[in-house]
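Researcher: Here's the sequence for the chain we discussed earlier.
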Amino acid sequence: MYLDLCFPREIEAAKEKHTPVVIVGGTVEYHGPHCAYGCDTLIAQGLVEKLSEKKDIIIAPPISYSPASYAVADEKSGTVHVEENAFEEYLYYVFMSMLSSGLRNIYVVIHHQFEQESLMPMTLSYMKAAKRATMKYLEKTKGQGWWGSESYCDYYENLENEENPFSWIQVIPTMSKEVQNATGYDHAGKFECSILMSLYPEAVKLERLDDIKHWFTKSAEGANRVLGDEMVKLSLDYLEKRII
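Model: Thanks. This is the structure I predict for it:
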């Protein structure tokens, strides 16, 4: 189910059932001459859509313009980079709106710069905006001193369940550290091209690989659908357990 196609009845049902709402945190970023600019978005989106075939989730519109950074290529490359502070502020209002509407089970799924689940600027922007929005929402609805009030005397007992407000918005990778170690992870190389080929074959054109030579794209010549299908399977297994 897509959020864009929901009506109030579906949203009310999602709140009652605690249905996960999943946002793809993507980029528009240069991935060499052979790989589409939407690579990071497409991988996450493709996995989330496959996940929706296995379990009940609501897929929110992806957020593609983001802090992609110019680490891979300069501003003439076609990469769209949004500075972190501006991006975080935008996300804050997105999250505040969702929390205010009553949604309590929100996930952001990211593929960009998440090697070994490291916390890079874009991921940190999501995490910080999520915590800021949660804190502000709690203060707005429960008043100052909410955490110290007697009504929260069982706070530590509820850290592992949905009553914990800081679990309302979770930022997770498309591929856990364990999945990355079992397959591989790179930028526009063998592994990223393989998983993208499995999900969106039209987004990879290996015949263009030599148009512009880069050290980080050289291994893409070994990309293949068999590897990509295995990466998709392991990623989906992880996401199915992680998004609950």
